[in-house]
Design the sequence.
């Protein structure tokens, strides 16, 4: 927009709106002027007449409504134009200005306008202006707009810099009031978009390890399609790549989709300690003058303020997450220690009780004495298993779990598991099935026999513990299409199952699905975690499946084959 120096025209001030007769449908020329309209302080048309209104492509009967709705006849730099309106309304002094207007079929027009406040009745504020003007002969189109437009005056530059400085101050105030990144991003694009009358403004966080950025905050004019959430490939956007490489504002022209006009896009990288952490892109349209160096410096300052805010908010978020994880870990370890203490105390009390009865001579019968000794021995083995679990998890956490792998016969492993666990299942009236692949050759896997047995006893023991009716099925499948081939072992039960939202806690160290469940069924809750770590150390994977509570569970683990079996 080109604005001349202010010219006071006191003789043109009308005393009230009733003294002016304007046409609202553009059908009759009022006051003998080429262009006459009235507006309120927001720039909304109240009445309108133009000798060449056919260029607007509007229904003359509804011209005011259509102009307000479509913004089809409006100043290119609406912000500066509204600043003049507000100054005229507050001072009640008319001004003569020159400015560029956009028009649908002519694209750009330079107008000479006389803006006059319409004085209301005494004591009432001035809210309306009368604008009379004409089209200057310097009509241009978008192809020669850059060559034909006059440079901004010193007054315009001062007004623009003042407006941009206020914008910077407002953005800085807003981002200092919160550490919520979502609020910071959205407030920034809204402030930039509304103050600068942008077509669109977007912000994308940036990670040096990624070649793409995602739009997480957006401002756009009504009627524009939203691109929030879209991903942008940095390599396909030269302005983005240049802004990241130089950490300086980049201005580029982008053709509009359906017009010969061009968008002007300003891309700037937000950074902290000279490292980029985001990208902001501002899209102008019909901009009639280039951005000045001072404005580019302001853009860089906004980006630096935003980059610092992003860094601080990100650090605060990471600290909050770390604090929450530390609190959760402390709580889980406290619960774990309470449960483990109970698990250790229970067999230890039993052992002490039986041995005390023997030592005090309360068992005269040799058979009863033998029974007490046997019970104490079994309790000691149970206690040893608990301590072994604790020692295993300590070794795993310290990274000192070392396994020696060698060939293991899968059938021998299954036979040992059955001999240890079948009686437990039948005692609870549960069916117990062991299924091996139907081949004549032995299946030899590569692993540590003792640890594989420990894993299977853990999994089968859990299945028996959490199943009250139905049964347990242990099976193995050969997956020979893999290279090298693997064996998948499956332990399925018809037990209490696990709800879908709690299954992610199963393999978390010291985490329990439900403290009451552990207290009811006993155990340290380390079995699955230890099993997973042991299987992973042998080159396999552990997975848990359940459709929900009461729907049973299936745990699978894989172990590599030592050699391919001969298939019959």
Sequence:
């Amino acid at each position: 927009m080109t604005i001349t120096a202010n010219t006071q025209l006191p003789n043109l001030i009308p005393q009230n709106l009733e003294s002016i007769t304007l046409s609202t449908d553009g059908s009759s020329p009022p006051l003998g002027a080429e262009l006459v309209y009235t507006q309120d302080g927001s720039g909304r048309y109240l009445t309108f007449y133009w000798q060449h209104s056919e260029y607007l492509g509007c229904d003359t009967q509804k011209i005011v409504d259509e102009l307000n709705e479509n913004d089809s006849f409006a100043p290119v730099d609406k912000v500066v134009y509204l600043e003049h309106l507000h100054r005229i309304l507050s001072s009640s002094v008319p001004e003569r200005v020159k400015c560029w207007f956009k028009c649908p079929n002519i694209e750009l027009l330079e107008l000479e306008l006389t803006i006059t406040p319409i004085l209301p009745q005494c004591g009432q504020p001035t809210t309306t202006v009368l604008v009379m003007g004409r089209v200057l002969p310097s009509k241009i189109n978008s192809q020669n707009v850059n060559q034909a437009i006059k440079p901004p005056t010193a007054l315009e530059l001062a007004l623009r810099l003042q407006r941009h400085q206020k914008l910077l101050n407002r953005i800085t105030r807003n981002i200092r009031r919160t550490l919520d990144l979502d609020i910071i991003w959205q407030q920034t694009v809204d402030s930039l978009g509304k103050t600068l009358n942008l077509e669109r403004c977007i912000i994308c966080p940036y990670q040096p390890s990624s070649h793409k950025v995602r739009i997480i905050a957006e401002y756009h004019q009504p009627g524009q399609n939203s691109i929030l959430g879209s991903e942008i490939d940095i390599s396909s956007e030269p302005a983005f790549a240049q802004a990241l490489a130089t950490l300086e504002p980049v201005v580029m022209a982008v053709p509009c989709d359906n017009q010969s006009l061009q968008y002007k896009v300003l891309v700037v990288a937000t950074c902290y300690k000279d490292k980029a952490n985001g990208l902001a892109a501002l899209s102008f349209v019909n901009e009639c003058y280039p951005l000045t160096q001072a404005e580019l410096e302001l853009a860089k300052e906004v980006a630096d303020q935003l980059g610092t805010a992003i860094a601080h908010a990100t650090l605060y978020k990471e600290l909050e997450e770390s604090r929450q994880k530390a609190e959760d870990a402390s709580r889980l370890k406290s619960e774990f220690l309470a449960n483990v203490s109970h698990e250790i105390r229970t067999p230890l009390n039993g052992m002490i009780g039986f041995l005390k009865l023997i030592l005090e001579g309360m068992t005269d019968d040799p058979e009863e004495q033998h029974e007490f000794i046997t019970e104490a021995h079994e309790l000691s083995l149970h206690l040893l298993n608990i301590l072994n679990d604790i020692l295993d998890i300590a070794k795993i956490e310290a990274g000192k779990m070392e396994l020696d792998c060698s060939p293991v016969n899968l059938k021998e492993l299954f036979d040992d598991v059955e001999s240890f666990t079948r009686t437990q299942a039948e005692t609870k009236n549960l069916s117990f099935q062991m299924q091996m692949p139907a081949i004549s050759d032995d299946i030899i896997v590569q692993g540590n026999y003792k640890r594989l047995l420990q894993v299977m006893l853990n999994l089968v023991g859990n299945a028996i513990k959490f199943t009250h009716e139905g049964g347990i099925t242990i099976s193995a499948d050969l997956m020979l299409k893999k290279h090298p081939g693997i064996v998948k072992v499956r332990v399925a039960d018809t037990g209490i199952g696990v709800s879908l939202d709690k299954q992610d806690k199963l393999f978390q160290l010291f985490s329990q699905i439900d403290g009451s469940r552990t207290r009811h069924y006993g155990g340290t809750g380390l079995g699955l975690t230890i099993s997973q770590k042991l299987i992973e150390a042998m080159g396999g994977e552990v997975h848990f499946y359940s459709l929900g509570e009461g729907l049973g569970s299936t745990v699978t683990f894989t172990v590599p084959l030592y050699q391919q079996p001969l298939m019959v």
Notes: The chain has a mean pLDDT of 79.
